[in-house]
Each structure stands twice: as C-alpha cells, then as structure tokens.
Design a protein that fits this description.
With 185 residues, the chain is mainly α. It contains 5 helices and no strands. The longest helix has 40 residues. The termini are far apart.
C-alpha cells in the first residue's frame, strides 16, 4: 500500500459510518472554529507580521469598505447555506469526521461542487481587502491552493469511492468552484 493510499484510508475511514446528532453539532462547531475564526485570524496575524517586517505598502481603494463588507457577507451567507444543506439534506456536516450520508446536488451544490470553499475564499478575500494588505491577499491565495489540493487529492477520491458513478456524473456536469452563469434568452 502506497503512502497516498494510507493517507486516503485514514481520511475515508469515518466516511462510511453514520454519525450521531452530537457528532454533527461537534463537526459544525469545529468547522466554524477552524474556517470562520482560526484561518482568518491566522491570515491577519501573518499578514500584519509580513507587512511590518518588510514595510509593505497598504492599498486603499475608494470603495474598499463596501467591497470588503460585500465579500465577507456573501462568503458567510454561502458558508451558512452550505452547512444547512449538508445538515438537512446530506445528513452530515462540513468536516470529514461527520460526512454527509448522501450526495448533495441541490441548493448551493447545484451551482458548484465546492460552495463551502467558494464561500470561505470570498470571506477571506473580504478580510484581506479590509486589511488593505497585499500579503493578506497572498495568504488567502495560499489557503485557497491548499484547499484545492486537499479536495483534488483526497476528497474527490473519497466521494468517488462512496457514491460511484452518480458522483462522477455530477463531477462532469457541475463546475468545481466557479458557478456557471446561465443567461436565459
């Protein structure tokens, strides 16, 4: 067994088990702490440190506050909608320790396969713009790339194992993260 297969086995061990309501609440709480609180704090602390150390300039745009507030609000609303959909329809939560019990293809998942990631990235970009920091933008992009790596290497394989052809069809027909805008004629 390769190292990759061992890592995949560790991440997927829990995914075939049903989770209790207590585990779902714990998963939502931990996910919120990590993605809504800890990662943004980490981005702020790292960017302040880098900006101070390298004496980096700040950017100021005329409508920066409006852009920041809009991105933060949209990101948090998308995160909340995604968690609610995972809980109510998927019967699971946002972390691998409380996986959804069925493949979700409605709600925010109708528009892209990773609405939670999209919401988090919008939220982090909003924080970066609020900080007026180029290094915060850099760290946001770095977190985004790490999220993409995790999803591509671990999560998509695990979903294919659990849901088979149904997931593979969904994967082929639904964008990864950027929703397609359909214009009616």
């Amino acid at each position: 067994m390769s190292l990759y297969e061992k890592i995949l086995e560790i991440f997927t061990k829990k995914t075939f088990q049903k989770c209790t309501n207590k585990e779902k609440i714990l998963g939502i709480f931990l996910g919120g702490c990590i993605f809504v609180i800890l990662i943004p704090i980490l981005i702020i602390i790292l960017s302040l440190s880098v900006d101070t150390y390298f004496n980096l300039p700040r950017f100021k745009w005329r409508y920066n506050s409006i852009l920041s507030f809009s991105l933060i609000s949209i990101g948090l609303l998308l995160i909340a909608w995604t968690v609610w959909t995972q809980l109510k329809i998927g019967k699971g939560g946002p972390l691998p320790i409380v996986p959804t019990q069925k493949l979700i293809v409605v709600g925010p998942y109708k528009y892209c396969r990773n609405p939670m990631m999209l919401g988090a990235i919008l939220y982090y970009f909003g924080i970066s713009f609020y900080q007026h920091s180029f290094s915060a933008l850099f760290f946001t992009i770095l977190f985004f790339l790490l999220f993409v790596l995790y999803v591509k290497v671990i999560e998509e394989k695990e979903l294919a194992m659990r849901f088979g052809g149904v997931y593979l069809n969904y994967k082929e027909t639904t964008p990864f993260i950027i929703p397609k805008v359909k214009v009616k004629k």
